[in-house]
Amino acid sequence: MKTNSYIPQPIDTSDVTLPAALEQLVEQMARNVHEVWAESRISQGWTYGAQRDDRQKTHPCLVPYEALPDEEKDYDRHTAIGTLKLIMKLGFQITNGAEGPASVRQE
Is pTM beyond 0.90 here? Predict the structure, then answer.
């Protein structure tokens, strides 16, 4: 049997703190992460089912974001937070459109 020698090495973002102003963005991104995932699954022929069944292509998370269990929402939030922290770690700044056009720029 072949062993998997792959060792994930994500960029360490533990020193990055997201500003409170990004909390709303985190939730919007989490919702969109779910929507992209669901759209992809549906395009592959998956449908809603009370239990995940890979053979029948059914999944209980093929529901609107608001109907997801909290642990599934947390998974999507974790993805959004990780993405935002990486953007900041790489030296980019995120601004909203309140003071002009929204932008992401590198410091």
Answer: no
